[in-house]
Structure to design on (280 residues):
């Protein structure tokens, strides 16, 4: 169901976060020193540009936290790669050889095309499979999961990672975590997956031989994303008269969901965290 869900969303993702080649489907990072943009009177194109800029900022922040120059510059797995924005980022910025894992059959040709466009088609390969069926052609130096691990069977995923990573290898996770039940419900209603606690990850990882070594909270720095995301949707609704009645209804649902998520984010109902585990 999740694979079909993302196949169905491909055109919408390209419209909102494209045109590529590095297309991301995750929140953005807004440094505390930066004044969040006032997007209420901006065009959809201007808002989209800002969203993409801050999504790339999130990956650059992750790279700094995780020490990407030496941990994410070898053979890595990008598990739940989406349209490959992160895979291309690690390959282009850090020279990584990336195996991108997706369960959406429509996505590999898109990712492969973007990789050719970026000149890294020899450094990125895309495989269609479940996160618990990682390739055994390792060892890999690290695995990365950017807002994708919430869909995984975490105990089985960590067990599989223990088989394919080298000793001392890292599992780098950026994810939304639950801090109170209502926050989980708001997230689940829109994204079809219910977030869990950091402790749930720690326990699953420990059982497979991993130890938590980094836990960085970036909830406040990512909160403005929901304002921008909602602003883009509203700008499209206000400016695009060609939208069908069905598309307009779907976008209004998306607008309400983004507003609800922003409210829950600011109220402390959800946490955005960067975790790093090491294989003992």
């Amino acid at each position: 169901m999740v694979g079909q869900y993302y196949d169905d969303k491909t055109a919408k993702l390209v419209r909102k976060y494209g045109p590529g080649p590095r297309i991301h489907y995750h929140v953005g990072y807004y440094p505390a020193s930066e004044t969040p943009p006032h997007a209420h009177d901006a065009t959809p194109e201007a808002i989209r540009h800002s969203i993409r800029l801050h999504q790339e900022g999130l990956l650059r922040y992750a790279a700094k936290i995780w020490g990407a120059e030496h941990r994410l510059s070898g053979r890595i797995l990008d598990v739940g790669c989406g349209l490959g924005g992160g895979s291309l980022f690690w390959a282009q910025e850090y020279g990584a050889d990336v195996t991108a894992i997706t369960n959406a059959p429509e996505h590999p040709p898109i990712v492969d095309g973007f990789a050719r466009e970026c000149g890294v088609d020899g450094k990125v390969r895309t495989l269609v499979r479940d996160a618990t069926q990682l390739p055994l052609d390792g060892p890999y130096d690290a695995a990365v999961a950017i807002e994708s691990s919430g869909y995984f069977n975490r105990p089985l995923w960590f067990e599989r990672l223990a088989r394919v990573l080298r000793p001392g290898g890292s599992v780098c996770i950026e994810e939304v975590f639950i801090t109170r039940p209502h926050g989980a419900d708001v997230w689940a209603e829109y994204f079809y997956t219910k977030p869990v606690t950091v402790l749930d990850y720690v326990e699953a990882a420990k059982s497979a031989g991993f130890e938590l070594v980094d836990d960085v909270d970036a909830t406040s720095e990512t909160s403005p994303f929901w304002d921008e995301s909602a602003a883009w949707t509203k700008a499209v609704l206000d400016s695009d008269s060609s939208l069908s009645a069905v598309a307009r209804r779907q976008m209004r649902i998306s607008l309400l969901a983004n507003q609800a998520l922003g409210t829950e984010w600011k109220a402390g109902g959800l946490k955005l965290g960067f975790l790093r585990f090491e294989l003992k």
Q: What stands out?
A: The first strand starts at residue 75 and ends at 79. The chain is about 50% helix and 20% strand. The beta strands are 75-79, 97-102, 124-128, 140-146, 165-178, 210-217, 270-279.
